[in-house]
């Protein structure tokens, strides 16, 4: 996809939107030549790339660096970058500066979690020419409040709140929103009630598109296996085999071979 207008074009054409994360130029180059539509520079980078315990630890500097690297690897794609924890909860000026830094690093749009309490910030970003993607349901930046990564919107009260927040995001001018870990029927109902697109993760197949963390779909982490994260590759095993082949070749004096010696 070349612009955010392609989100609604895809929905109108009945084509599911394919979103995947990337954090560096090498992976972005791969995604750019794949059939995936959109790249998310997720704040999951804090966990996946930096080994930090949660996305609470993502910083603006970190997100700017990853966004710039991904833009170099994918010059033509729509890139959505996550606004890090608290960067949109300290008033309009701080938020617009953070979002501006992400756009100047190469993002096409920003994503932010939740809506209640920062409605004015969302409207101000949109009014400033910054496309905003919302993120509802399981909002990982609130993990310390949610008490873990669990399905959201199970009670009727929670479902009603999610419906209202999704409608509010559309009213405030968000062009799309992520629904993370919510019941499939609720995600489908919210999608049908909105004119803007929804991108699901752990939210069933009734959304306008899907998003997965690249490392998850490549199976790079042997330990992280939530039910929604289908593995298209056992990357952990494949890479481990390559590494051990290399180690054995060095120890067995099979590497480097004659043609690999510069002389
Ligand atoms: N590598 C990675 N992939 C992600 O999808 C991801 C991150 N990191 N970091 C930020 C958040 C955290 N996310 C998570 C993390 C764990 C579960 C999880 O363990 N889910 C279980 C239990 C569900 C439940 O109890 O309702 C599952 O089996 O799906 C879900 C989403 C999604 N995001
Ligand atoms: C899981 C997706 C939606 C995300 O926000 C991230 O990767 O940070
Ligand atoms: Mg995120």
TrEMBL record:
SUPFAM superfamilies: Phosphoenolpyruvate/pyruvate domain
Domain of life: Bacteria
Enzyme class: transferase
Keywords (A to Z) from UniProt: Cytoplasm, Magnesium, Metal-binding, Methyltransferase, Pantothenate biosynthesis, Transferase
Gene Ontology biological-process annotations: methylation; pantothenate biosynthetic process
Keyword Thylakoid attributed: no
Subcellular location: Cytoplasm
Cofactor notes: Binds 1 Mg(2+) ion per subunit.
GO cellular component annotations of the record: cytoplasm
Binding site for 3-methyl-2-oxobutanoate: 43-44, 82, 111
Any GO molecular function: magnesium ion binding
Active site positions, chain numbering: 180 (proton acceptor)
Main localization, broad class: cytoplasm
Quaternary structure annotation from Swiss-Prot or TrEMBL: Homodecamer; pentamer of dimers.
Its job: Catalyzes the reversible reaction in which hydroxymethyl group from 5,10-methylenetetrahydrofolate is transferred onto alpha-ketoisovalerate to form ketopantoate.
Assigned protein family: Belongs to the PanB family.
PANTHER family: 3-METHYL-2-OXOBUTANOATE HYDROXYMETHYLTRANSFERASE
Identification of the protein by name: 3-methyl-2-oxobutanoate hydroxymethyltransferase
């Amino acid at each position: 996809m070349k612009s955010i207008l392609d989100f609604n074009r895809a929905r109108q054409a009945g084509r599911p939107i394919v979103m995947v994360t990337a954090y560096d130029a090498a992976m972005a180059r791969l995604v750019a030549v794949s059939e995936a539509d959109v790249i998310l520079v997720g704040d999951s980078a804090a966990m996946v790339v930096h080994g930090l315990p949660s996305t609470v630890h993502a910083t603006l500097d970190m997100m700017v660096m990853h966004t710039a690297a991904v833009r170099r690897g994918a010059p033509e794609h729509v890139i959505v970058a996550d606004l890090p924890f608290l960067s949109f909860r300290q008033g309009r000026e701080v938020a617009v500066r953070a979002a501006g830094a992400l756009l100047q690093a190469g993002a096409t749009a920003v994503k932010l979690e939740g809506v209640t309490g920062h409605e004015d910030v969302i409207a101000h970003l949109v009014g400033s020419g910054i496309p905003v993607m919302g993120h509802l349901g399981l909002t990982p930046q609130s993990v310390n409040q949610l008490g873990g990564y669990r399905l959201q919107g199970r009670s009727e009260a929670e479902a009603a709140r999610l419906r209202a927040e999704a409608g509010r995001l559309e009213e405030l001018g968000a062009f799309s929103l992520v629904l993370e870990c919510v019941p499939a029927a609720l995600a489908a109902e919210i999608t049908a009630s909105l004119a803007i697109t929804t991108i699901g993760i752990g939210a069933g197949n009734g959304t306008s598109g899907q998003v997965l963390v690249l490392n998850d779909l490549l199976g790079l982490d042997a330990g992280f296996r939530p039910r929604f994260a289908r593995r298209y590759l056992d990357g952990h095993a494949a890479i481990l085999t390559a590494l051990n082949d290399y180690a054995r070749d060095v120890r067995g004096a099979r590497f480097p071979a004659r043609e690999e010696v510069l002389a």
